[in-house]
Design brief:
Length: about 160
């Protein structure tokens, strides 16, 4: 690799029988060839992060909003009629982790930022949602925005 401090390289060549001074200006974007190394290992499922989203889905009137309220300790509307939830309800829930608590006690950091799970209450899934029934594509876009899906069923 060239010396990064010396980006201008003058040299003399004979072209067409004449002596010419050529100057080559190297780009600082030139990089050394990569060393042979092992490829990076990626997570096989989901994405790594401290704030993941899980969506609660299921048929109408199965108790999704009630389950959402219990998980998040919130007061979202949970009425006994289909499509009580049109716009998704979202709430962050801290993820309890005894290892995190131990590390905070041991190292005593200035600030503590625990991992959070964003729980999303998504409107009911109806037959024909892929063809525009119910909320249609809006329902599918709410699901697409989540990292995981919790399908709530009633027996």
């Amino acid at each position: 690799m060239k010396n990064p401090k010396n980006l201008i390289e003058p040299h003399v060549e004979i072209l067409d029988g004449k002596l010419r001074l050529l100057i080559r200006i190297s780009s600082s974007k030139e990089m050394a060839p990569k060393k042979d190394s092992e490829p990076e290992k990626h997570a096989l499922i989901g994405r790594v992060g401290t704030n993941l989203k899980v969506g609660i889905v299921g048929v109408p009137n199965v108790g999704k909003s009630t389950f959402f309220n219990v998980l998040t300790k919130s007061q979202a509307a949970a009425e006994n009629f289909p499509f009580c939830t049109i716009d998704p309800n979202e709430n962050k829930v801290p993820v309890p982790d005894s290892r995190f608590d131990y590390l905070c006690e041991y190292f005593k950091p200035v600030s503590k930022v625990p991992a959070f799970l964003t729980v999303v209450d998504i409107a009911g899934l109806v037959k024909g949602a892929s063809e525009g029934q119910g909320l249609g594509n809006a329902f599918l876009s709410h699901i697409k925005a989540c990292d995981a899906i919790f399908h709530l069923c009633r027996e």
